[in-house]
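re: ur question from the group chat, yeah i did fold both. here u go
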Amino acid sequence: MGHTGTGQGGRDSAPGTAAAAGPGRGDTRLPPGQRLQRGWPVLHYGPVPRFRPDTWDFRVFGATASGDKHAWNHAEFSALPRTTVVADFHCVTKFSMLNNEWGGVGAETILDLAPPAPEVTHVMVWAEYGFSSNLRISDFATERTIFATHHNGEPLTAEHGFPVRLIVPHLYAWKGPKWVRGIEYMVADKRGFWEERGYHNIGDPWREQRYSYQEQEGEGPQL
C-alpha cells in the first residue's frame, strides 16, 4: 500500500512540505531554521498516483484491539465525521506555511472506530506505491492530527495529496504522507521510507530533528 508523501508540497524528492506567507522572518511561530514562503510548492518522491474511486479504500490493520482488519471505501470514508484543524505547516526543507485550515477526518475518529490493541506503541502510515512513514502512537493520536481532504476550504489537488493526506502539525511535514491508503498498528517501532534514508525517526521541528545522525538513544530503531 501507499507511496509518497513527503512533505507537503509537490515533487517530494526530499521529504518535506510547503510554506505560505506570513508576518516576517522574525515570527516566533517559526521553528529554528525555518523561513516563511509564499505559495504552496509541490514536493514529493515519485509520480502522482491516479485516483480510482471504484477501487480506492482506506484500511486499518496490524495490532487492532479486535484482531480484525477495518476498511472503508471512498464513499464510506467521505461519510465519516469531519473536523477542521487550523495549524502551521513546517517542511524539513526549511520553509513553513502558517494558519492552514485543514478539513477531513480526525485521527481520533479512526482510533475510535478501529481501536488499537493496548500494547500498540507506533503506527505505520501507508500511502500509494508502498510509501510509508512511522509515528509514535502518542503523536498520531493527538486531536490535531487529521486525514485531510481539504485545504483552506478547497479539495486537495492531486499534486498535494488528493484524495487524502495526513497532517501532523507538530512534526515536520514528511511525517504526514500524501495519498494515504491506511494505517498499520505496531507493537514496536520500524522506520518508514524517509526514515530509512537518513531522516530523523521523530521529526520535531522545534528540536530541528531533521536527520538520523542527530538521534539520541531511544529515539529510533537501529539503522
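okk and heres the other one u asked abt
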Amino acid sequence: MGERSTASSGGEEKAFTAAELGALAHLYRGEVYRSTIWRSRLDHTTNWAVVTTGLALSLTFAGPEASPLPLILVGLLVVVFLLFESRRYRYFNVWRARCRLMETDLFGPMLRGEDYGRDGKWNTLLAQDYIRPHFHISELRSIGRRLRKNYAYILTVQAVAYYGKLAIHPTPVTSWTEFVDRAAIGPLPGLVVVLAGLVFHGGWLAVALITLRIEKRHRGRHKLISIA
C-alpha cells in the first residue's frame, strides 16, 4: 500500500510513505471523533425541542379550561432550538465532509487494491480545506436540512395539537366563528392569531422545500463528496 502514489501540486507522482499513511489514519480518527462530538450536540438541541414541546402539550391538555398559549410559545422556542442546531450542524458538516472524502477517495480505493487519488484531486481539496477552513453549506441550507430531518415533525405536532385544542376544548366547536373566537389572545383577534399560525408554519414549509431544491441542484454538479 505504501507504494501507491498521488499527484503532487507540481504534477509529479509522490508515493505515500508508511509514516504518512499512519498520519492519515490518525487524522481520519481525529475527524471521526470531532464529528461524533458535534453529532451528539445536535441530538441535545433536538432533545430540548422534544421535551419542551411535550411539556407544553401536558400544560395545554391538562384540562378543558387550560389555555392553548403554551403551544404558541413553545413553537417560538422550537424555532430558537432550530437556529441553534443549524449553526451546530454547519460545524458538524465540516468534520463529516472530511471523513467522507477520506473514506471515498483514500480508504475505499485502498481496500479495493486500486490506485487512490493519482490525479491529486482529493488530497489537494482536503489540504485546502485545512489551510483555509470554511463552512461547506450556508445557514439557510443548514436550517432546511434540520427541518426536513427533525424539526418539521416537531412543528407539525405543535400545530396539530394547537388547532386540535381549539377544536375540542372546552367543548367541540360547532362553527368556524366559534373556532376563531377561541384563538383570541388578549387584545389580538382570533382571526389574526389563526392566520399568523398558518403563515408561521407555511413559511417553514417553504424553507424546507426551497432548500431541498437547492440541495438537489448542488448534488447534481458531480463534485467530490461533501466538500465544496
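fwiw on the second one: Helices lie at 18-60, 69-112, 121-131, 139-168, 176-182, 190-219. The longest strand covers residues 5-7. idk if thats what u expected
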